[in-house]
Design goal:
Blueprint: H1 2-29, H2 34-38, E1 47-49, E2 67-75, E3 80-86, E4 92-98, E5 103-108, H3 109-112, E6 116-122, H4 124-129, E7 143-145, E8 150-158, H5 165-173, E9 176-180
Parallel strand pairs: 6-7
Antiparallel strand pairs: 1-2, 2-8, 3-6, 3-9, 4-5, 4-8
Length: 183
């Protein structure tokens, strides 16, 4: 009886280890992640509006049809990224993802407290190379350190009703994601 109990406990333990290893390895092993799907349709360091999602043609997972979305596929090897995103009347958010779909920073229009979300994205090494400016304080300039040199910036604008979707898309159309060398 004890022998069978040990076999069952060992099997459950081994099954748990295999399950955990599979779940942790899946994001790195997936070939059709959001970044890979966006490569053919988005140039590097440029904000591109995404088409409205449908059940069969959603480009990224979990896209909400009440939001207009735009994506910037960034590469920091040529310098930092300057993001300027005007906010919509309802709600606007910006989320930063690594190449492996790990979200590492997010900000919305309420936290920004302005009519536009403006920030600089760079690697920690690029941040260390930046000259210290006496006339620019931390409150004037939001600097985000990226854990990787490539990734995605996802900009979302809420359209509370379907009739307000053109207003949300217009706010996203004015957003800019541009590469600038560090001076």
């Amino acid at each position: 009886m004890i022998r069978w109990l040990l076999w069952i406990v060992g099997g459950v333990l081994l099954g748990g280890i295999v399950h955990l290893a599979t779940v942790l390895a899946m994001p790195r092993a997936a070939t059709q992640d959001a970044y890979s799907r966006l490569v053919p349709m988005t140039p590097v360091n440029k904000m591109v509006p995404l088409a409205a999602p449908t059940p069969k043609t959603s480009i990224m997972p979990f896209m909400d049809p009440a939001f207009a979305e735009a994506v910037c596929r960034y590469d920091l090897t040529g310098g930092l990224i300057k993001l300027n995103a005007p906010v919509s009347d309802a709600y606007t958010s910006v989320t930063f993802y690594t190449r492996n779909s790990v979200a590492y920073y997010a900000i919305n229009d309420h936290a920004a407290g302005k009519r536009a979300i403006e920030l600089d994205l760079m690697t920690p090494a690029q941040h260390a190379q930046m000259p210290e400016e006496e006339d620019v304080t931390a409150a004037d300039r939001l600097i985000i350190d990226s854990p990787s040199t490539t990734g995605l910036i996802v900009l979302r604008a809420l359209a509370p009703t379907p009739s307000l979707m053109p207003m949300a898309r217009q706010a996203l159309a004015a957003a800019q994601c541009r590469n600038e060398p560090i001076e």
